[in-house]
Amino acid sequence: MATPLSPQSDSPSPLKTIAVVGLGTMGTGIAEVLLKAGREVIGIDVSEAQAARSLAALEAATARAVERGRLTEQERADALSRVRTGTDLAAAADADLVIEVAPESYEVKHRIFRELDGVVRPETILATGTNALSVTRLAADSARPERVLGLHFFNPAPAMKLVEVVSSVLTAPDAVAAVTDLAIELGKEPVAVGDRPGFVADGLLFGYLNQAAAMYEARYASREDIDAAMRLGCGLPMGPLALLDLIGIDTARTVLDAMYAESRDRLHAPAPILKQLSEAGLTGRKAGRGFYTYEAPGSATVVPDPLTPPPGGTAGAGRTVRSVGVAGSGTMASGIAEVFAKAGHDVVLAARSAEKAQTAKARIGKSLARSVDKGRLTAEAAAGILDRITPAGSYDAFAEVDLAVEAVAEDLEVKRQLFATLDKVCRPGAVLATTTSSLPVVACARATSRPQDVIGMHFFNPAPAMKLVEVVRTVLTADDVHATVREVCAGLGKHAVDCGDRAGFIVNALLFPYLNNAIKMVQEHYASLDDIDAAMKLGGGYPMGPFELLDVVGLDVSLAIEKVLHREFRDPGLAPAPLLEHLVAAGCLGRKTGRGFREYARR
């Protein structure tokens, strides 16, 4: 069970001399954090050359800190005087704490812990930096299991705030308290978690990364589109495939193997492409090639390769789109109509009644007024945009539009009826688009006599702000219709990604299993809402924690999407968490009802 952590005492941590075993990127980063916090650091690595590289990296990092005004020259000299490196574990004899960050192998870690048992003092704490292996197993193999725990930093350690403090059933509370106090003194935010592969942050992150790899392997979408979709659709700092390259594809495979060995959840069974790339030595940035190709091993610069899309794409010529019809009166319909009008299109905004259409146009007027107040638009420009929007109480007003976009309720029968109507009222050659986020586009297409003209055009909410549009072509969609929508998206200033007609498309198919797994963690009393949200924001760079996001999206909407995913993919791991179903049944739908996973003040 994860619990919020605060200092265990008012006195400074007694952990003054700390050995770091394993001086790769993570070990060196941890050593840097410890040095800056005034600790004596003993760096140990099996390779003398790696120990020397680590020391050089520490010298360079502290030099940069001086250049940026974060350290004085004297403070830098003092810091470097407190570090020594070598290859002999006997150097850890004086340490109060040993942090092991050797390769993710039981054999390697067991050998280190066994040797440390014969070197360190009885009261010394032994911490493993594993994110994949059992802390309990390592502790049980030690002569002092009560002094063994997990201390999981995130990469890059100097920048990342999260530290997971992992206890086994054997760990003494005073050992947990000591490393918790240390983490706080290091300027980190520690979260206490139990011992299971992946803990909180990686436990959620690696399932998502694995699904993204499987999606790419199935050729459902290109690597560029998968990554762009998750960056632009979810606000993530990196796409999943680029992140796998950064982490190391071999490392990700090891973590997933450990998670699957315990959970037997198919979502954790490593995608075959991870094994293929690992065994070919294509392990990501460190090798110069993984999902992407890099300028050189260790470089972050992606270079073109045979899989890189040609500039400008290959969509071909599309149809001319001047006038646009938007069907619906909700927030999404209003937002889409605003986007088209801003781009210079004449827009017919049609709803089930003239009053609803006028209300939707008034909502757009308020949105434009806010832009004027913030200096993003002039009053004259806002008035011109609003004038391009014509409200209508009947879909007959779509008779001459070049593109009709529906944004009505997420109900297949409602959408099918609407497409049957659009088929009758829209002129031949008009493109018909659905904004569905989870329903089959082909079902909408089959409700018409021209399925070749139907395509998915999934905007994200709020449409004026969100750059992503998922372009969903069915097996019946004509090439020039696909090209038309790609051109339209470019004209709107949106980033279009291509995907096939299957549940969730890219974003929701990757996002909602991750959210569902977070709910399962709470349901199983492994971690609290606050700890999980903090872990994903601090450890994964997510703009919102999963429970913050669920409450914003709406628990009823989330449950509906998860049911669609489960029904389509038939994977037991995608079954909605019972806790989510119970909250929806109780009417706790998130912010819109004042209560979801958390309670909110009524407006």
TrEMBL record:
Domain 3-hydroxyacyl-CoA dehydrogenase NAD binding stretches: 17-195, 324-501
The pathway this protein participates in, as annotated, is: Lipid metabolism; butanoate metabolism
* Name of one Pfam family that matches: 3HCDH_N
Q: Where is the 3-hydroxyacyl-CoA dehydrogenase C-terminal domain?
A: 198-294, 504-600
Name the keywords, alphabetized. Answer: Oxidoreductase
Q: Which family does it belong to?
A: Belongs to the 3-hydroxyacyl-CoA dehydrogenase family.
PANTHER family for this protein:
3-HYDROXYACYL-COA DEHYDROGENASE FAMILY PROTEIN, 3-HYDROXYBUTYRYL-COA DEHYDROGENASE
Q: What is this protein called?
A: 3-hydroxyacyl-CoA dehydrogenase family protein
